[in-house]
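Final paragraph of the annual report: two paired records, presented back to back.
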Amino acid sequence: MITSAHAVGPALYEKLPYHAIESFSAVSLVASTPLVLLTHTSLPVRSLKELVALAKARPGQLNYASSSIGAPPHLAAELFKRSARINMVHVPYKGSGPAFADLIGGQLELMFAALPGSLPYIRAGKLRPIALTSAKRSQAVPDLPTIAELGFPGYEVTNWYGVLGPSGVDRKIIERLNAEIAVVLQMRDVAETIVRVGAEPVSSTPQEFEAYLRSEVAKWTKLITEAGIRAE
């Protein structure tokens, strides 16, 4: 089982003991969860348009947190900065817990974070959700719009999960595994559990998953190279 970090590794690290695509056999995507753009409740914005306007009026003055350098929240913010043509300052943390604590405490203005871990703070009114990073809205927060629908078409960042096998596995085995995963994802209790924690069940063919993985590697390699991001 891998996460979207698998597609980031080739660009983030100079040497890996494997090839992100050729060393494996793609089996299936399993689930995907959006990130959510959050702000401190004192920040005078209630929409993405207002946030972009504030960032342009105060270039380099808004600080955004991330759980670590090169993690999806960091990359989501960097991609948004380029899409909106704004300048914000990155403040990396060692984990999402300290980042949430400082954002709630008002030491930071905003952050991108995985939706499941953000839901308790949103529901308690401790943080203000502005928009989701997925292409479509989430069943967990259906009233929250996506960045793509708010004027940035094509913007999409998700934490996704998938299954890989070793390279060279017999195709019949891959197809059987893929079929069984699809059956499990259609089970009502499984699907409801995935949705309840803020994710979405996502099945695919092995071919679709391999193509998606290649596109993700290319996408993040381009962004990480252009932004000069390096793991610490």
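The closing record of the year follows.
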Amino acid sequence: MPVSRRTEPVNRLTGASVNTRTPPFGQAEPSPAERLLACADLLACPQCGHPLAAPAADPAIGDPPGPTRTLCCPRGHAFDLAKQGYVSLLTGASTKMTGDTPPMLDARAAFQAAGHFAPIAEALARAVAASLPGHSRTTTDLPTAVFGADPTPAATPVAQVPHHFPARAGVIAPGSSVSASSSTRLTATLLSSTARARAVADRSASAGAAVLEIGAGTGYYLAAVLDAVPAVRGIALDVSKAAARRAARAHSRAGSVLADAWRGLPVRDAAVDAVVCVFAPRNAEEVARVLTPGGRFVVVTPTSRHLAELIGPLDMVSVDEAKEDRLAESLGGRFDLVARERVEYAMGLSRADVANVVAMGPSAFHDAERRAERIAGLPDSMPVTASVSVATYRVR
């Protein structure tokens, strides 16, 4: 009786085999802590807003050679790197944002490793590469991933205009307000226009371009972007500790940060050339602050056709048909649409794939036992639509 062999998934961006296990680090492979320290110049103290840096070791007190595993700001606030290599920049009271759980991340990693969302990662990487200085030609080397045309014409590019960054007011999460103490702290840490100009000049002289992903999860999409644009550094930011641990090992040029984007991004002004956000909440004011002049914000959102074949049979959370309009409205005060692509294609999913795609999203904990029975009743292989919008914005 023939035995079927399970082939290892392949990353369509790089051609390399991928799996859900964490590979060992060799001598040429930087550790997660080293990856973060290499990106530390992009970070800002979440308490006072001043730049973070890793101070040199002090042999007089027994420090080993090289930078310490602590990030400090000029005012003395210090943040130790976790043993997994990420840094927690969460401060104050516990955040109400919980992020993904370990089981959700396990399901997401398995689904991503199988390559089902590779065309989405490819489209995102092309969009980011096209926006980065000196990397626009990289897009011609990437595989074509757009399987359906966007019925809405892309916005016509217009000439660059001066970017105005208003005062950094308190960041307000939906349905909540900023406390007086938080507002006072944020107001006290605003950079003057002169300091901001200096930050831009210092950034221009630093080591190349940088990309930030908000709600990075496993780090899959950020890794795809960094694979497509050599020499660019990345920051994976997520509010989930389990995600921060995973993202710390996502790519050799990416550092991992635990933070709540709704409280403010612990990133320096004008520090990153692109911000990406895939199926995650967005903080438009903070994104505008951390982008360099001419930087781009690339947002991936599901359309109403995404996973449509599963929504009814499995009673999953559906996507609002007006989601794209609401996204444009939420960013309209700070951003202009530059381009948009519709990525749509059919995936052949097994029951295990279906279970993973359900477990990794907002439907994960809704009537799980009954859903498992419904999944068992599905065919072992079924076509399911993947449909997303990849929109690129610039600061107004």
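The first helix runs from residue 32 to 37. This concludes the annual technical report; the extension proposal builds directly on these records.
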